[in-house]
Amino acid sequence: MSASFLWASLVGAQIVLALAMTCAAIRLVRGPRAQDRVLALDTLYVNAMLLMLTFGMRETTTLYFEIALVIAIVGFVSTAALARFLLRGEVIE
Amino acid sequence: MNDFSALSPMLAVLIGLLALLGAIFALIGSLGLLRLRTFYERVHPPTMGTTAGVGLTLAASMLLFSALELRPVLHELVIAVFTVITTPVTYVLLVRAAVHRDGIKGKQPAANAAEPGDARADGNL
What we know:
Largest interface: A-B, 57 and 67 residues
CATH architecture of chain A: Orthogonal Bundle
Helix content of chain B: over 70%
Distance between the termini of chain B: 49 Å
Radius of gyration of chain B: 20 Å
Strand content of chain B: under 5%
Largest sheet of chain B: none
Largest sheet of chain A: none
Oligomer: heterodimer
Number of domains of chain B: 1
Number of helices of chain B: 5
CATH topology of chain A: Helix Hairpins
Number of strands of chain A: 0
Structural class of chain B: mainly alpha
CATH class of chain A: Mainly Alpha
Number of helices of chain A: 3
């Protein structure tokens, strides 16, 4: 009973996270300016990281944890580089 | 459905509620990003979604793996610390870039980019 509740709530969490990713993707497409798109991309990758963690809990494997860690690191670097590009016009001077 | 039946009922319900609540926080943050009107308003909701959502989901994950492997599993703390450190840094960088692009100093930031369309007309994408 409680095991099936845990299963159902993990599936529900994945559906909710998919909705959150949809919201961020709509903002990413709609814009209207570049910084809105960068912000939407940042939110999108955080939601994707949470989705990976939820997948890992459903499958009870720690493989997905490493995927989530890579998404977190690459997402931070990409958002910082994009913000720097918006600020300066170039990433590496 | 795999070996969730090894968990005690209270713990399984707690883990499920934590995971669901974390996902709902993330959804609220993304919904705020979609619904609010100016960029400076839109920066706020994802920070809440990131902090609360990541914290609750990682707590659920730590509880689940600790209970299943019968030992403390704490490697999720790496992601938690990393996210808590990097989120403010990226958003400060992004808002500084936005302020720079808006050419602040005299111009009201809320006046431009209120709705999609007019930014394109101004040519300041």
